[in-house]
Design a protein that fits this description.
- The protein is an alpha/beta fold.
- The protein has 2 domains: 176 residues, Glycogen Phosphorylase B (Rossmann fold, 3-Layer(aba) Sandwich); 158 residues, Rossmann fold.
- 42% of the residues are buried.
Length: 355
């Protein structure tokens, strides 16, 4: 089977990476397509996955309209050259539109529920795999599974913390450290949304810097006064350092969820609510704030928990017991598609064979 996967975010490389590795072992062939946004190319190269870059991503409203046409055409051309049997993505309109033109099925994964994006790809998509906690109803095309996207690459079957954090971060000792994440607010779903104000951002960084080593990962512009905190690691090491962090605090939903499934106390600050982050709050792993109010108080509250890392490791274990290995599930689903779609509709519990 030949599979074409379109990547729209660094997290999508992680989402499909182990799936591609497992499928390659079974003789299947892959091609990834992407735009240059953040670390997509570096991650694809680090994983050794074959890919084609379509160039820079557009951020303005007009640019996004131009990009939709341009990248649709480029995706279709790659489809003509590669001749895939199946296209996959995390909600990519380019992959969906190309699949329709090529007459091939498009399987999408979706966990964000952004209707402005889903309207563009759903009509051209054969099937949508979503976490069971996603509140949006996507109709007959939706197949729900009991897991998160983050467990496609952070499940213990695929990820093990090395505890070599000091070396990765170039610290002289194993001093406690925290990771902060700020987003650029350029995505279509970010319009009108908010996270930290500059004043509160400064206040929290000042508090944390007096107690821990602080590392900041920023999607967009980072003021010069914070440059000394900018994290300097290769992108593929980010999950190792998240696993060892004292806390994660940030505006990025994906990194907040990644920290949660790794057992690192995670504080998500964004007016956009994500169902998977809220589900992790039930396990006491992620704490969701729609604005900055109360964030510093939550940090101080967490600091009072005795044996913090062990407490959160136990919470993580409970989460893992409840969730499936989404990568193993995807391998079964895609290899047996379209019959697998009918099978899981008739018997949803079959997913629990993939733990």
């Amino acid at each position: 089977m030949k599979i074409l996967i379109d990547i729209g975010h660094p997290g999508h490389v992680h989402l499909f990476r182990n799936f591609a590795f497992e499928m390659q072992k079974r003789g299947h062939e892959f091609l990834f397509t992407c735009r240059e946004k953040e670390f997509e190319i570096e991650l694809l190269e680090a994983a050794g996955l074959p890919f084609i870059s379509f160039g820079k991503k557009y951020n303005s409203t007009l640019g996004k309209i131009i990009g939709l046409i341009k990248f649709d055409i480029l995706e279709f051309i790659q489809g003509l050259k590669f001749k895939p049997d199946l296209l996959m993505s995390h909600g990519s309109p380019y992959a969906a539109h190309a699949s329709a033109l090529l007459g091939k099925p498009h399987i999408s994964l979706e966990d964000s529920g952004n209707w402005e994006q889903m309207k563009l790809y759903l009509p051209f998509t054969s099937c949508v795999l979503t976490p069971n906690v996603l509140v949006e109803n996507l109709g007959k095309k939706q197949i729900k599974y009991q897991s998160y996207h983050e467990l496609a690459y952070l499940h213990p079957n695929y990820f093990e913390a090395t505890e070599n954090y000091a070396s990765i971060l170039k610290l002289s000792t194993n001093d406690p450290y925290v990771i902060l994440r700020f987003v650029s607010w350029n995505a279509s779903h970010d319009k009108g949304q908010t996270g930290f104000s500059e004043k509160e951002k400064s206040r929290i960084i000042e508090y944390l810097a007096s107690r821990y080593k602080v590392f900041i990962t920023s999607e967009g512009y980072l003021p010069e006064k914070y440059h000394k905190y900018k994290i300097k690691i290769v992108p593929e090491d980010i999950h190792q350092v998240l696993a060892g962090a004292k806390f994660f605090i940030g505006e990025g939903a994906t990194m907040a969820a990644e920290s949660g499934v790794l057992g690192t106390p995670s504080i998500y600050v964004n007016s956009i609510r994500r169902s998977y982050n809220e589900d992790q709050e039930k396990y006491g792993l992620v704490f969701n704030f729609q604005n900055e109010e109360g964030v510093l108080d939550k940090i101080k509250e967490l600091e009072k928990i005795p044996d913090l890392k062990n407490t959160f490791a136990q919470r993580r274990q409970k989460l893992l017991e409840d969730k499936i290995d989404i990568t193993a599930f995807m391998v079964w689903f895609v290899e047996n598609y379209p019959q697998s779609k009918e099978t899981i509709i008739d018997n949803p519990k079959i997913q629990f064979e993939y733990k």
